[in-house]
Design a protein that fits this description.
The structure holds two protein chains of two kinds. By secondary structure, chain A is of the alpha/beta class. Helices cover 53% and strands 7% of the residues of chain A. The radius of gyration of chain B is 23 Å and the shape is elongated. The chains are: A alpha/beta, B alpha/beta. At the A-B interface, helix 8 and helix 17 of A face strand 2 of B.
Chain lengths: 517, 250
């Protein structure tokens, strides 16, 4: 199955996406955020919590005077490492209990500070490489089933309950497990600590929870002889920190979108742009596949109208990911099956859009999201709509397939809901495995015309955005009809300009640059 | 005086046929099938047939059953008031508000607590509306404030106070272990504590909301699945108009 696509229009869209990202990238290069700095500390091994359960990374960054912060937390922290000779993790704990304050080390020269950090930068990156190689080895030993990779969510609030649900889902055929976060977490300006057993609509993302789930999935992977992937969310106010901890605990995928938090969580746009960049640099290095959140355009507005916005966002996400050093194979661009089931030929429209994305982003592991908006308490109809979603996914060659739940509109899935959902997907994908290879689309027919319209609409939207600038475009509600101002939203106070001599040694190392103040 | 008892209908009047499915935390076996059958018997069902029983995960089995219930209910004894009694179009609501109240009504809506699902509140408030029925933003007679998702009840109350809101729409879509009821209750109690409860029309909505449940929680109305924006608009307009009339009488 092949759509005839206007390739020059695709090239123009990519050029527009580049023009859109370029000025934002200049802003990113000139700024940092508290979360970027905390991620740097976490990569050095700073962990744990101090008084009132405040994470040590937060304690240290919050205590930095403005002028120090603008040069990056690494420099101030490196002075302490140089002076005390302590391992960074141990120094962090000592600061947390008040034995030291970074202000004590103000006299240490920059060069000494950076020199003291160098071996720790190298060992941190070596650790990330080990985790990455470990994943590659396990994937070779326990190969995955062919895509679409069935992705299911667990979300009990209790990591130990999640673990049981995840193992059950894997045994039923799931290949990717996402632990949905407690819904408030995207708005927390810190990463909670330790194993957690209480959450709302999900389970807190903590390093300990990551570790518990990874261990359980490794165990079931071995039993099943196929590697089961683990996903969490590098979104919200702590994108870079989650990216860092996920890399350390060998997560395989992270939800990470360059604009989702801005539009749908009212997180400040400058904060998000800066955070997504560093988080994606880390994802690139650790071999983590990102999943972008274009499905959200479709759940909050009409799915037929918003199709061009989905494609435009895919181009923008691709561009920002490339600028962070991510290869196509790690960019899981999103889409969703959200057209009103009552619409005549709605299925054709879904096929058009999914196939369009497949052909425009041939090497991207596309993420396909299930129907949610038009799901109701009628679970029988819901199961049927999910079946058509499954068919669309397999016939258009989607890679990451989030299984739709028949009880989507009712509750967080029961064990049986998840099993029924996976059975549905396995049945359809098996019975129609090569359907897409066997059919040809009618030239100039409904599907092709729809794809043309979507691409043309996307180009027009990108053109408008490029003309006014991305930040102004978001301020003018060009995306998802949501208006966000450049200095509004959550987390803006955590964005600051980089002073001369700013250092983020990991950023330097990942770019292959030397780090000097 | 009792009316006719209503029972579920399969293909014959009063056969009481029910379909159900559930999971048992045991490995599947013939014993598990029999356990499912006996369990349905203990629930009070007769003619229990376990039509499907199979493993769905290590240590878990899934069952589909058909059975007959001997129970019935008397419709005459049931009280479930409908809120959809004031059918009006958008134009009629606008005209009604202009005539009876003479000013724009201020409506604030939010998905409260930690719930991030704005599908319901957006369907009612957004210009586009739902199923071809325009949302409240499009009405001339309303000034709307869509506060979005994850709004703490106390923030919604503070907003209500600050902006002299006439009507509050609180939405809860996804629940986990009763969090929706807790949030709705907290909002009603906070409004009461702030002395605002009588000043506002307080409405809740969501796929599991019923009007009966809403009235038990101290709300003026509850709107469940399939609600159209115009139904909510008409309820707000009529309720406020009646309230103002009563106030002027006193």
């Amino acid at each position: 199955m092949e759509l005839r696509i206007d390739r020059t229009a695709v090239d123009r869209c990519r050029a527009l996406a580049s023009a859109i990202a370029a000025p934002v990238q200049e802003f990113i290069a000139a700024h940092s955020t508290v979360s970027v700095e905390r991620a740097v500390l976490r990569l050095f091994g700073v962990d744990g919590v101090g008084p009132d359960d405040v994470p040590v990374a937060n304690l240290i960054v919050d205590a930095l005077p403005e002028a120090e912060r603008r040069r990056g937390a690494a420099l101030a922290f490196g002075r302490g490492v140089a002076e005390t000779g302590l391992d960074p993790g141990v120094l962090g704990e000592a600061i947390a209990v008040g034995r030291y304050a970074l202000a004590d080390f103000a006299g240490v020269p920059d060069a000494a500070a950076l020199g003291a950090l160098r071996p720790h930068v190298e060992s941190a990156l070596a650790h990330l490489r080990v985790r990455r190689e470990e994943r590659q080895a396990l994937l070779a030993r326990w190969p995955q089933l062919p895509p679409p990779l069935l992705y299911v969510i667990v979300a009990s609030g209790n990591i130990y309950e999640d673990r049981s649900a995840a193992v059950a889902a894997a045994e039923a055929g799931a290949q990717i497990i996402a632990v949905i976060r407690s819904t408030g977490q995207s708005l927390l300006d810190f990463v909670p600590f330790g194993p957690t057993t209480e959450g709302f609509g999900g389970t807190y993302a903590t390093q300990a929870n990551f570790r518990i789930m990874r261990a359980a999935l490794d165990q079931v992977s071995e039993k099943l002889g196929r590697y089961v992937m683990l996903t969490n969310y590098a979104s919200g106010l702590c994108m870079p920190e989650i990216a860092a901890t996920a890399a350390l605990e060998r997560l395989d995928m992270l939800l990470n979108d360059s604009m989702y938090g801005i539009l749908f969580r009212d997180i400040n746009m400058k904060r998000t742009f800066v955070d997504q960049h560093f988080s994606r640099m880390l994802n690139a290095y650790s071999g983590i596949v990102i999943n972008t959140g274009e499905d959200n355009y479709l759940t909050t507005a009409d799915a037929v109208d918003q199709a061009p916005a989905v494609l435009a966002s895919q181009f923008i996400n691709e561009e920002f990911a490339h600028r962070a050093g991510m290869p196509d194979a790690q960019i899981g661009l999103g889409d969703a099956y959200e057209i009103d089931p009552g619409l005549e030929d709605g299925f054709l429209f879904q096929v058009a859009q999914a196939q369009l994305a497949r052909q425009i982003f041939p090497n991207a592991p596309l993420k396909y999201m299930p129907p949610t908006k038009h799901m109701t308490g009628d679970i029988f109809k819901g199961h049927l709509v999910d079946a058509l979603f499954n068919l669309t996914s397999v016939m258009t060659g989607q890679t990451i397939h989030l299984c739709g739940m028949l009880t989507e509109a009712i509750h967080t899935p029961y064990l049986a809901d998840r099993a029924l959902s996976i059975e549905n997907a396995r049945y359809i994908m098996n019975t129609a495995r090569h359907f897409g290879d066997e059919i040809a689309l009618r030239p100039g027919g409904r599907i092709e015309r729809r794809a043309e319209d979507v691409l043309a609409g996307c180009e027009a939207l990108l053109d408008r955005v490029a003309g006014m600038g991305l930040m102004a475009a978001i301020d003018a509600a060009l995306f998802a009809d949501v208006k966000r101002s450049p200095d509004g939203g959550r987390g803006f106070d955590g964005v600051f300009p980089r002073a001369a001599g700013y250092v983020n040694p990991f950023e330097n190392a990942l770019r292959g640059e030397p780090f000097t103040a | 005086m009792t009316g006719r008892l209503i029972k579920p209908y399969g293909d014959t009047m009063n056969d009481g046929k029910v379909q159900m499915s559930f999971t048992l935390p045991v490995e599947w076996s013939e014993t598990a099938d029999e356990a499912a059958r006996q369990l349905a018997g203990k629930m009070g069902f007769a003619d229990v047939q376990v039509v499907e029983g199979r493993p769905i995960a290590g240590g878990f089995s899934f069952f589909v059953l058909y059975a007959s219930t001997p129970q019935g209910v008397d419709l005459e004894t049931i009280h479930a008031p409908s809120v959809r009694t004031h059918a009006m179009t958008m134009e009629e609501v606008d005209a009604y508000v202009l005539d009876r109240i003479g000013r724009k009504l201020r409506v604030a809506g939010a998905c409260i607590g930690t719930d991030a699902h704005t599908v319901g509140i957006d369907a009612i408030l957004n210009m586009k509306g739902y199923k071809g029925d325009y949302g409240l933003e499009r009405y001339h007679s309303f000034e709307t404030f869509n506060l979005g998702s994850q709004v703490a009840p106390e923030d919604l109350v503070a907003f209500t106070k600050l902006h002299a809101v006439d009507a509050i729409l609180a939405s809860q879509v996804v629940t986990q272990k009763g969090s929706d009821l807790k949030n709705f209750t907290e909002l009603a109690e906070l409004l009461e504590a702030e002395g605002l409860r009588d000043r506002v029309v307080l409405v809740c909505g969501g796929p599991r909301v019923t009007n009966l449940m809403a009235s038990e929680l101290g709300y003026d109305a509850g709107f469940g699945r399939g609600t159209l924006p115009s139904e909510v608009a008409a309820f707000i307009a009529v309720t406020l108009a009646h309230r103002l009339r009563e106030e002027t009488r006193v």
